[in-house]
């Protein structure tokens, strides 16, 4: 698989990664055995950039990923995150970026993952009560200690990114980006490009919506949190189906799936962008990875841009947007 650089510090990853969150939580019931098979198949196909976080599960997704890579650690670029705080029962308790928490969270992640270092360590969400300089200063100590190789931020605002990068080079910013979520284009993408920071696009398939798999807001099973997202509810859902219909029609004309077209569009936005679609099934993984071979012409990209311009999607992307892009 083609490789892409994230940042200017030497981090190189495949052009597409694998988001592992849904294997343990949020998108319905999981199957650990199948999830491990998915991770192994992903590595076989060259998609070796794996993304997890301490709070996924909560705390069980790192254990799962650790088991999956135990005998192939050297083949994987491993990314995890800290900063969102949850009780063991799943209750959300806000954000914590205090230096002592950063150090403790890293040690806990290393233990769950059963590894001696993390390749890319993100602050999952910015703690508005702790100066970013203090948080990134503690993250830099982890780099110096050999526990972490590269640093990242997730859902940070341009001013915060600049302040963080001044303390220690940031290699990657992770933010939601897809055909129906393009709010990063006016300010965030130009900022990271100016600073030489790579961009990791999570939910590049709109939490599965852009695949065409859902035709009714009532079609979700137990343990699936998507019905709590405004874009998946009532009139918003029905209005957003028009986006999917457009993508499906354009994909059919090209002879690819809607998911492959949506991923190809993200990949075409720049060689500094790496999408990390998630899945729990090997056949969907293989379909997603095949999107790397879908080439879009300039006119095709322009047609998609015109068909789904920024701001087209109905509804906020989270029910509570207070922790987004600080």
Description of the molecule:
Helices cover 37% and strands 16% of the residues. By secondary structure, it is α/β, with parallel strands linked by helices. The chain has an eight-stranded parallel β-sheet with strand order 3-4-5-8-9-10-11-12. It has a two-stranded antiparallel sheet with strand order 1-2. The longest helix has 21 residues, at 234-254. The model has no long low-confidence stretch (mean pLDDT 96). The radius of gyration is 19 Å and the shape is globular.
Annotate the secondary structure layout.
Elements: E1 3-6, E2 11-14, E3 18-19, H1 32-44, E4 49-51, H2 60-69, E5 77-82, E6 84-86, E7 92-95, H3 99-113, E8 118-123, H4 132-144, E9 148-154, H5 158-167, E10 172-176, H6 188-195, E11 198-202, H7 234-254, H8 258-267, E12 273-275, H9 282-290, H10 298-307
Parallel strand pairs: 3-4, 4-5, 5-8, 8-9, 9-10, 10-11, 11-12
Antiparallel strand pairs: 1-2, 6-7
Helix pairs in contact: 1-2, 1-9, 3-4, 4-5, 5-6, 7-8
Keywords:
326 residues; 8-stranded parallel sheet; 10 helices; globular; alpha/beta
């Amino acid at each position: 698989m083609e490789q892409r650089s994230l940042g200017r510090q030497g981090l190189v990853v495949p052009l597409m990664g694998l988001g592992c969150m849904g294997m343990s939580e949020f998108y319905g019931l999981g199957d650990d055995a199948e999830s491990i098979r998915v991770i192994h198949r992903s590595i076989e196909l060259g998609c070796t950039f794996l993304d997890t976080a301490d709070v996924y599960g909560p705390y069980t997704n790192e254990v799962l990923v650790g088991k999956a890579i135990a005998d192939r650690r050297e083949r994987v670029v491993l990314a995890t995150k800290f900063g969102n705080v949850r009780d063991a029962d799943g209750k959300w308790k806000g954000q914590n970026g205090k230096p002592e928490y950063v150090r403790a969270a890293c040690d806990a992640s290393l233990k769950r993952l059963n590894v001696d270092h993390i390749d890319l360590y993100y602050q999952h969400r910015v703690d508005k009560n702790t100066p970013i300089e203090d948080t990134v200063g503690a993250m830099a100590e982890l780099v110096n200690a050999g526990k972490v190789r590269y640093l990242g931020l997730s859902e940070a605002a341009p001013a915060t990114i600049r302040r963080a990068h001044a303390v220690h080079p940031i290699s990657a910013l992770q933010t939601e980006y897809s055909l129906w979520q393009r709010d990063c284009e006016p300010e965030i993408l130009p900022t990271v490009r100016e600073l030489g920071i790579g961009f990791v696009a999570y939910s590049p398939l709109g939490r599965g919506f852009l695949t065409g798999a859902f035709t009714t807001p009532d079609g979700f099973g137990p343990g699936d949190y998507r019905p709590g997202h405004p874009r998946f509810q009532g009139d918003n859902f029905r209005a957003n189906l028009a986006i999917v219909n457009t993508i499906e029609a354009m994909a059919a004309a090209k002879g690819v799936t809607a998911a492959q077209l949506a991923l190809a569009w993200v990949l075409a936005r720049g060689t500094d962008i790496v999408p990390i679609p998630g899945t729990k099934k090997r056949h969907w993984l293989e379909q997603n990875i095949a999107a790397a071979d879908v080439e879009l012409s300039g006119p095709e990209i322009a047609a998609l841009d015109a068909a789904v311009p920024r701001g087209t999607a109905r509804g906020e992307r989270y029910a509570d947007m207070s922790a987004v892009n600080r």
